[in-house]
Design goal:
There is one protein chain. The protein has about 1000 residues and is mainly β. It has a 22-stranded mixed sheet that branches. Strands 1, 46, 47, 48 and 49 form a five-stranded antiparallel sheet that branches. A five-stranded mixed sheet has the order 50-56-55-52-53, with no helix packed on it. It is elongated, with a radius of gyration of 43 Å. Residues about 1-20 and about 240-250 have low confidence and may be disordered.
Length: about 1000
């Protein structure tokens, strides 16, 4: 056993509850109009109206009694007499905006469906679920948001700048309130609710600033006081919190019944839900227990990490789901029993009216559960669909047995039982005992009964399981009738005596018995499941307390009280049979699922007194606290025990309250569980990893991997990002497989288990992998998948800098990412600036050293790289005045040797000059020096034609243009004295 996922889930308001998470369900017509949203909270429910919160709390003491009574020995009597106490109170926002509009926040992908009652206008599909609801302008300038935190209901009152929080007045109706240690206490008839002292705060300059806030209670009106005031220029958030003392963590109660699957591997779980509708009055009241039991159906993703949808199905009384199965379009068919006259039926259905007491119901949902495609009653004037026999109702939950089977053509088969002598049938069969088995075949649309028949003799009889294949229907169950209709040449044509016998029979498509047989001992025996074998045989699974026959060369446990048996198609011969169990004399487990796979392996699931049952060395769980689930798989012909394991918590009691679960054709169990405890094993990332108080629906999906070779499911298309040469490793099915064949898609092959192959170039390649093992059920298996080889591209970048302008003191940097295949580009410029583009231009204005970090990521190949470049901006301020000397001494002492310009700050003034020209004349007006074409060719060294000029006074004319001041040409003149 290699793969397992399990999820334990609590249906609440047709949703599955994840611990510490309150969810808000929108009203789409399924409830009274003034209810806008409903949230299941600890101990009850919250209804949100335009300007009122209505709380409906349920007595935890009564719910504990429900859990004990429903699971006790006197269940039927308990249901008739039990009541559940409620207490409802309202919090009305006095003076609030009556037209306030609530909107959902953080809407979830899952949704609820509601099919309650027989008024289609009250049905609703794809009802949104959100984590929070928000309303603008509950009061003028004051909004409200409701959400959960840490499993507690919270609501924030957001006072916008300038708004007056004294507008907020909350009147409590239907319960007494008082203050205790700054908290508000709401006294109910069934406990207390504590609203903790409020918290208020403001966000100022991105910091949370606490604001002192108190409750102020005057009579039944609650307000808020702010003794030290608050900053009215910023929003004020008032944050009360509800904590429900005296209530457990349990939300609406929920018991597990049935599970199935579809061809995509989704799991469907079904059970009963205890949830009430909108309370119309405040104060204490009570409801009849059975008036609040609906079927709850949920669908989960293949890996169990998310819920796809959840739906209610029911009427005003008790509605139980017994068995689930999908049709060829993945529409879900639900079979169960109901005593609700208002159970939803569809127009044109076979029977739209309730017939009395319990009726059988059959309903069909579309793939997403949002539409009730068809729904019908089947029944007579007495109880139908319920096994109320004191003899045949042997195990806990047997009262809700029976099975739906959907054939390949989508026709719907039902196996059940009836107390009604006026049950509708299509052949001449009549009721003979107080309880008879019955079988039906319906059209896919549930608008017509193809056949209906009683199955039984003069005493109690019940049909539990039904399958159909190639025009033959096989049915199995239990009987106390010596006169049960048995074929004369049957394997066992005579009643064996004892408490009861099992029976197996085949029917034609008109509901007529073809062949039939008893099976059992002179003690207690019943058949609970039936399936076809791969070689035109019939397999059954049941219970016995007698000396049930055991074939030679099979695996068995001495005195085992669970049996498996294979018949030929004529039911005239038992081909093989065996027993398993502890050998303690009484039955160990109640069977919940059974299947024969394509290899002939037999799979069994059940719950009960599991301690001491056989397990294998690779068991998922090797110890049991007795009340656990148990999964066991036998080899072909029952020759060996292939796998067996316990499943359950160390403290938790696991069971189901009736109904069937299923194995799929690949040997995967889809098992519903009723979990009464908190340590039931769950998997990482399961939709809900912990239940709360009471009993909750759990769902198990476990694969046993016993079919043989099945490598396809282990391979996914693969991406390889490499640099040449492209060397790719492949992983096969392991050394235990005898033969391997690889085709790498480029003309090369290999027979290695885990080959390594070199590709010459990048691209897409289709891989064929074949494994062969003559010792397995599936001798060979072929997997096809595609790989992509992508070359890692080199990440590079380029940059240019523009030197700082002497007038602006600014450094400009131009940078570009020049690599390829990068999905994310990030530039950290080292001064707190970030860019996310291929090319950028950036300016530095403050002197300093800056390290630029470029981060490039190729998300396709999961490849990242970083580059750094350092830039420095020096302090180049040219502030100061232009100085012209009036004397210089070119005497070669290296002091004051030249006639040139200076700046008062010591910088070279020529750096800021765009144009510069110098003319120097002697005292007779003769030109002795003229600057050259370049701006730096201007210095006079005191020579004329290479000879030292005479000492004396000279006249200069200087023309220049200053970049940082003006574009106009400036001319100045003056005298300079040359001395030696």
């Amino acid at each position: 056993m290699k793969y397992l996922f399990l999820l334990i889930l609590l249906i609440v308001s047709a949703q599955l509850f994840s611990q510490n998470n309150i969810e808000f369900v929108e009203n789409k017509g399924q409830w009274i109009d003034k209810a806008l949203f409903k949230a299941e909270i600890e101990g009850g429910a919250l209804w949100i109206e335009a300007n009122t919160f209505t709380y409906d709390f349920v007595s935890q003491e009564d719910m504990d009694d429900v859990n004990r009574g429903w699971h006790g020995d006197n269940r039927e009597e308990f249901i008739k007499t039990a009541t559940i106490r409620h207490h409802v109170y309202k919090v009305a926002f006095i003076g609030a905006n009556e037209d306030v509009v609530y909107t959902s926040k953080e809407t979830l992908s899952k949704y609820n469906n509601y099919f309650i009652g027989n008024d289609p206008t009250k049905w609703a599909g794809k009802v949104p679920i959100s984590k929070a609801v928000y309303a603008n302008s509950l009061y003028t300038g004051i909004d409200i948001e409701s959400y959960s935190k840490g499993g507690h209901l919270k609501y924030d009152l957001i006072v916008k700048p300038g708004a007056d929080p004294s507008q907020i007045k909350m009147r409590y109706e239907g319960a007494a309130i008082k203050m205790a240690n700054d908290d508000l206490v709401v006294d109910l008839s069934i406990g207390k609710v504590i609203e903790q002292a409020p918290i208020a705060y403001q966000i100022i300059d991105q910091e949370r600033v606490a604001v002192l806030c108190n409750y102020r209670l005057e009579g039944d009106i609650l307000q808020f006081d702010f003794p030290k005031g608050f900053n009215e220029d910023y929003p004020l958030i008032i944050d009360p919190e509800l904590i429900f003392s005296t209530y457990s963590g349990s939300l609406a109660g929920n018991f597990g019944f049935t599970a199935t699957y579809d061809d995509q591997g989704h799991l469907y779980g079904g059970g009963i839900v205890f949830s009430s509708g909108y309370p119309t009055t405040t104060g204490a009241f009570q409801t009849d227990f059975a008036a609040s039991i609906d079927a709850g159906i949920s669908k989960y993703t293949e890996d169990g990490t998310e819920q796809v949808f959840a739906t209610y199905l029911g009427g005003s009384n008790e509605d139980n789901p017994h068995s689930l199965m999908v049709d060829s379009d993945n529409n879900l068919v639900v079979f169960g029993s109901t005593n609700s006259a208002s159970f939803p039926t569809t127009t044109g259905a076979y029977d739209e009216e309730h017939n009395g007491d319990y009726d059988i119901y059959i309903s069909k949902f579309n793939e997403d559960g949002s539409d009730l495609l068809a729904s019908t009653f089947v029944g007579g004037s007495d109880a139908d669909g319920r096994n109320n026999s004191l003899v045949l109702s042997h195990n806990y939950g047997d009262g809700a047995r029976g099975e739906v089977f959907v054939a390949a053509n989508d026709q719907i088969f039902i196996a059940s039982c009836s107390n009604s002598d006026d049950l509708p049938t299509t052949n001449s069969s009549v009721q003979q005992g107080a309880l008879d088995g019955c079988a039906f075949l319906f059209t896919p649309e549930l608008d017509s009964m193809i056949f209906g028949t009683f199955i039984g003799g003069s005493e109690d009889d019940a049909a539990y399981s039904i399958k159909a294949e190639e025009g033959i229907i096989v049915l199995a169950g239990g009987t106390v009738s010596e006169g049960f209709p048995i074929s004369s040449d049957a394997y066992n044509s005579t009643y064996n005596g004892g408490t009861c016998d099992g029976f197996v029979l085949t029917l034609d498509l008109n509901g007529n018995i073809i062949r039939s047989t008893y099976t059992g001992t002179d003690s207690y025996d019943q058949v609970y499941f039936v399936d076809f074998g791969t070689d035109n045989s019939i397999f059954v699974a049941g219970q016995t307390t007698g000396a049930f026959p055991v074939s030679s060369n099979v695996y068995s446990n001495d005195g085992g009280t669970q049996f498996l048996q294979e018949f030929n198609i004529d039911l005239s011969e038992s081909l093989t049979s065996t027993v398993f169990g502890t050998g303690g004399g009484s039955t160990d487990i109640s069977l919940t699922a059974f299947m024969i796979d394509i290899c002939g392996h037999a799979y069994v699931s059940g719950f009960g007194s599991t301690s001491g049952l056989p397990i294998t060395s690779d068991a998922f769980q090797s110890t049991s606290v007795s009340n656990d689930f148990y999964f066991i798989v036998f080899d072909t012909g029952f020759e060996d025990l292939l796998y067996a394991t316990f499943f359950g918590g160390a403290q938790t009691s696991e069971h189901v309250d009736g109904g069937t679960s299923r194995f799929d054709d690949n040997g995967i169990i889809y098992q519903a569980v009723c979990v009464c405890g908190t340590d039931f094993p769950t998997t990482e990332n399961a939709y809900s990893t912990g239940g709360s108080g009471g009993c909750n629906l759990g769902s198990i999906k476990m694969e046993f991997n016993l079919l043989g070779l099945n490598f396809q499911d282990q391979i996914e298309d693969t991406l390889f990002c490499e640099n040449p040469p492209f060397i790719i490793p492949f992983e096969g099915a392991g050394e235990l497989i005898a033969n391997h064949y690889w085709n790498f898609g480029d003309g090369s092959t290999s027979n290695e288990t885990d080959p390594i192959h070199e590709y010459s170039e990048a691209g897409f390649y289709e891989i064929e992998y074949i494994v062969m093992d003559s010792n397995s059920c599936f001798i060979s298996d072929t997997a096809y998948y595609e790989i992509e080889i992508a070359q890692k591209e080199a990440f590079t970048f380029d940059y240019e800098t523009t030197n700082p302008s002497p007038c602006s003191d600014t450094l400009k940097v131009d940078m570009a990412f020049t690599g390829t295949s990068a999905d994310v580009i990030s530039w950290d410029m080292g001064d707190g600036t970030f860019y996310f583009a291929d090319t950028i231009s950036h300016y530095y204005t403050e002197p300093g050293e800056y390290t630029v970090l470029l981060s490039a990521t190729d998300t396709y190949c999961d490849h990242s790289d970083e580059f750094e470049q350092v830039f420095t901006l020096y302090d180049q301020s040219l502030a100061g005045e232009l100085l012209i000397p009036n004397i210089f001494s070119p005497n070669r002492d290296f002091v004051n040797e030249y006639f040139k310009l200076y700046n008062t700050n010591g910088d070279d003034p020529l750096e800021v000059l765009n144009y510069y020209h110098v003319l120097i004349y002697d005292r007779w007006g003769k030109s002795v020096f003229e600057s050259g074409e370049t701006i730096k060719d201007w210095v006079w060294d005191g020579t004329i034609d290479g000879k030292d000029a005479d000492e004396g006074v000279y006249f200069y004319i200087i023309s220049y243009n200053n970049l940082c001041e003006s574009s106009d040409l400036i001319t100045i003149s003056g005298y300079i004295t040359l001395v030696r």
